[in-house]
Design brief:
The complex is a heterodimer of chains A (497) and B (185).
Chain A lengths: L26 E2 L5 E5 L9 E2 L6 E2 L4 E4 L8 E2 L4 E9 L9 E8 L20 H10 L12 H4 L8 E6 L8 H8 L1 H15 L3 E7 L3 H18 L3 E7 L8 H9 L14 E5 H13 L5 E7 L7 E6 L4 H8 L7 E5 L6 E2 L13 E6 L17 H5 L6 H10 L2 H6 L10 H5 L6 H48 L11 H7 L1
Parallel strand pairs in A: 1-14, 9-10, 9-12, 10-11, 13-17
Antiparallel strand pairs in A: 2-8, 3-5, 4-7, 5-6, 7-8, 13-14, 15-16, 15-17
Helix pairs in contact in A: 3-5, 4-5, 4-7, 10-13
Chain B lengths: L1 H23 L6 H9 L13 H10 L11 H12 L21 E4 L9 H5 L5 E2 L7 E2 L21 E4 L20
Antiparallel strand pairs in B: 1-4, 2-3
Helix pairs in contact in B: 2-3
The chains are: A alpha/beta (497), B mainly alpha (185).
């Protein structure tokens, strides 16, 4: 029986370019001599370093601990010596350097003790498992890099677990290759997450342009269920349409439920996890292996042999390029992620991080500069393709005019920045950049308001303190203590305050 | 006669009702001052001629001060005040680019090599953002600094000791630029 599927509004069909890189098996990329591990590879607060310069570290050793609830630890991805803790270029749109721990590899790749290995995860309470997922530094590997432990401890019970293997962006094939090469890791991880979250059913979603991955999963499923106990698990092929892999879009397709505006999936009883994340959780819980590497797609027309590599986190992208670029590749541009939602890398010294799923390296011949944007003609093509049912053209006008409150009224913050609107825009307006600009402006205004509130409170406290001091002084004078007159240095007690 | 009794009774009932409502629903303070104060940037810098943002808000409310005396609020602030009070916006009175946006956020930084520990800036700071003690180096807590410049010379007796700088650009503070469009409408 074919499973009933729903559909999400809008979306576009894109040329996949996946066959470029999905023909070769995943191979390990050589461990580089210098590893650069950013402290902020995840959403939330950057981690706090636990090691000092000059210290020897082992592979898998915890070297930075989470600084807040929404944060993640960092582990050494090879053995060696910490040579610096300093700001280095990282994978981020802004190009702003971030604090990183730099490890000079000793070439031994020696693992530290794995203290969690040997424990049977099936008999461990859910709370402890979530703790271990957090300790392993696992974040959403689909690109959002949100700490998984936070997601897996939802505030409300859920009934459906969705494993997201859709991978709808063109060019990227790292999840495809993961599902083909390690289907049992994905499924066993999912089976355990089913226990952990208390969900009743699990759906592993794969886009129907990846039949090999779907077949591999289906073949492995029976064996996993036989070994680990029967459960309502199913591999579901979903129609290929961008952005079917968006969390809210996929929930809609599989369950027909709609995550409310500004809400999270658990509010409709769903937890959605990327396949790469599930495999990382599998490795952490069954093998005690923290997150120190990931599969990265290296593709594009400037790459001599596009394929997927298992890379250590912290591998400088320049070293990757040195190995894979075509000899005649000049003037190329490196994109992190896919062409729709990715961004251009400003500095190739930046290292591969937990969320780096794809290096798209394209030659940039002089004549194909981006076309100039033309005025908006209000054709409404963007409205038809918006998967969130927003009005992109209105958002564009408001963002451009700086009318931030109006942009918010048009649900600016529900925009998932998928880029469908810009893709179909006949005037080639960089719409998503306008939305990003507007979102940042709104957040900056909120920060300013918060700071003003803080200043107001501090000023009031100061006024009250000055009043109090005056009153005390007057009281002392009233009681007749002429020695302490007005000439007493007010600065002294203020400085002490 | 009946009409007189009915009207009297009604006016008594409404009078008591209104009297009770006035007691029950009494608003503390002046709500307009609160609203004006909420628009002001809370730098407490005194550039408006009043000792802080709240006194200036009270002065605007009473009609004593005009709405265009706050340079840190920028022209944006003047427009917001004009909106609230139903007046026409006007260019800033005391300095600042007339039509400019909000001026850049600056924070004070004390050069600890030249600081003599006189505590004068500590006393001048309206938000207690400077820590230190007599004859010890002072420093600014940049998260609290409003950029009011009240600690600069001549309050600080050492030339070049306190400077206003742009806070360090971090990933959290970073803002993407507005896309550059080549074609014009």
């Amino acid at each position: 029986m074919k499973r009933r599927l729903w559909s999400f509004p809008g979306g576009v069909r894109l040329a996949g370019f996946k066959e470029l890189s999905n023909r070769e098996a995943v191979v390990p990329f050589p461990v580089p001599s210098t590893i650069v591990l950013p402290l902020g590879q995840h959403a939330g607060q950057p981690a706090e370093p636990l090691v000092e310069v000059g210290e020897r570290v082992l592979c898998g050793q915890l070297i930075a601990r989470p600084a807040a609830l929404v944060s993640a630890p960092v582990h050494a991805s090879t053995s060696g010596t910490v040579v610096a803790i300093e700001e280095r270029p990282v994978v981020h749109r802004s190009g702003i350097p971030q604090r990183c721990i730099i490890i000079e590899s000793d070439g031994l790749d020696e693992w530290g003790p794995m203290d969690t290995a040997g424990e049977d995860p099936w008999r461990t309470p859910a709370k402890q498992l979530v703790e271990r997922i957090r300790d392993a530094g696992i974040v959403g590997m689909g690109g959002a890099v949100f700490p998984s432990a936070v997601k897996l401890a939802p505030a409300k019970p859920v009934d459906t677990l969705i494993i997201n293997g859709v991978e709808c962006e063109p060019y990227i094939t790292c999840d495809d290759l993961l599902m083909r090469s390690r289907p049992e890791a994905v499924l066993r991880g999912a089976r355990l997450l089913l226990e952990l979250t208390g969900a009743r059913r699990c759906r592993v979603a794969v886009e129907d342009n990846k039949p090999e991955a779907a077949r591999a999963l289906e073949q492995a499923l029976a064996e996993v269920l036989r070994q680990d106990g029967a459960a309502d698990m199913e591999v579901v092929q979903v129609p290929t349409r961008f952005p079917a892999g968006g969390e809210k879009q996929l929930i809609r397709v599989l369950t027909g439920r709609e995550v409310p505006s500004g809400g999270l999936p658990f509010q409709v009883g769903v937890v959605c996890v990327n396949v790469g994340t599930v495999a990382a959780i599998h490795d952490a819980l069954f093998q005690g292996r923290p997150l120190i590497s990931r599969i990265v797609t290296v593709t594009g027309d400037a790459v001599s042999a596009p394929r997927n590599y298992e890379m250590r986190l912290g591998t400088p992208i320049r070293e990757v390029l040195d190995r894979v670029l075509r000899d005649d590749a000049r003037d190329m541009r490196v994109h992190i992620g896919g062409p729709m939602m990715g961004f251009e890398l400003l500095d190739t010294r930046a290292p591969v991080a937990k969320g780096t799923n794809c290096l798209l390296v394209r030659a940039q011949p002089a004549e194909t500069r981006p076309a100039e944007a033309m005025p908006c003609i209000r054709c409404g093509a963007c409205v038809d393709v918006c998967p969130v049912r927003l009005m992109p053209q209105q958002l564009y006008w408001h963002a451009r005019a700086g009318e931030l409150d109006k942009a918010r009224e048009h649900h600016l913050f529900d925009c998932i920045e998928c880029g469908c609107c810009a893709h179909v825009c006949p005037s080639r307006i960089p719409l998503v950049q306008y939305y990003q600009f507007a979102k940042h402006e709104v957040r900056a205004a909120e920060r300013r308001a918060h700071k003003a509130e803080l200043a107001r409170a501090r000023n009031e406290q100061r006024q009250a303190r000055i009043e109090r001091q005056k009153a005390e002084k007057a009281k002392r004078r009233g009681r007749g203590k002429p020695k302490r007159d007005e000439g007493a240095d007010a600065g002294g007690d203020e400085a002490a305050a | 006669m009946l009409a007189v009794i009915v009207i009297t009774a009604l006016s008594l009932v409404f009078g008591i009702g209104l009297g009770l409502a006035a007691l029950r629903l009494k608003v503390e303070g002046d709500p307009l001052v609160e609203k004006i104060d909420a628009i002001l940037p809370q730098t407490q810098c005194g550039q408006c001629g009043y000792p802080g943002c709240r006194p200036y808000a009270e002065a605007i409310s009473s009609g004593e001060a005009d709405i265009n005396q706050c340079p840190p609020g920028g022209y944006v602030g003047v427009v917001a005040l004009a909106d609230l009070l139903g007046r026409d916006p006007k260019p800033l009175a005391n300095g600042g680019d007339a039509q400019s946006d909000v001026p850049p956020e600056l924070v004070a930084v004390i050069d600890e090599q030249t600081c003599i520990g006189c505590t004068k800036c500590i006393q001048a700071c309206p938000v207690d953002a400077i820590v230190g003690a007599a004859r010890h180096k002072h420093t600014v807590i940049d998260a609290y600094c409003t950029g009011c410049k009240l600690c600069l010379e001549p309050i600080c007796p050492v030339p070049g000791c306190i400077e206003m700088v742009e806070p360090e650009l971090t990933v959290e503070r970073w803002r993407p630029p507005l896309p550059r469009e080549v074609a014009r409408v």
